[in-house]
Specification:
- With about 120 residues, this protein is mostly helical.
- The chain has one domain.
- About 70% of the residues lie in helices and about 0% in strands.
- The termini are far apart.
Length: about 120
């Protein structure tokens, strides 16, 4: 879960660096039980908000994929807590986090071309 929270911090930083900065809450500040839900809903709203950013379509898609991969890792780690750490769940969560890192690197480095992919 620590890697997931670290990835969330990177996502927050990328969103704050957009031409129209987007701020989302931390997923788990101490003492606020509703915050994970609020943070998750806020991150999901970013998928719509990003469409209004003055960035290329490729960057918009990259942000959408980044967020979806982060959600995939989150859901798998939550399921692991509830149903147990089956090897495939842990492998799939790790794979999703690897994709999150890849999307972060692509967005940071600007290695995105506006094609039809």
């Amino acid at each position: 879960m620590e890697a997931l929270l670290g990835a969330h911090a990177f996502v927050q930083a990328l969103l704050e660096d957009l031409p129209l900065p987007v701020t989302i809450p931390d997923p788990a500040p101490e003492g606020d039980e509703d915050t994970p839900t609020q943070a998750l809903l806020a991150l999901n709203r970013v998928r719509r908000i990003i469409q209004d950013e003055p960035i290329t379509e490729a960057r918009k898609r990259a942000f959408n994929h980044l967020i979806l991969d982060w959600f995939t890792a989150y859901e798998l780690l939550v399921l692991t807590k509830v149903a147990g750490p089956a090897p495939w769940r842990l492998d799939a969560a790790e794979f999703s986090l690897d994709r999150v890192v890849t999307w972060i690197e692509l967005i940071e480095e600007g290695d995105l071309e506006d094609d039809e992919s």
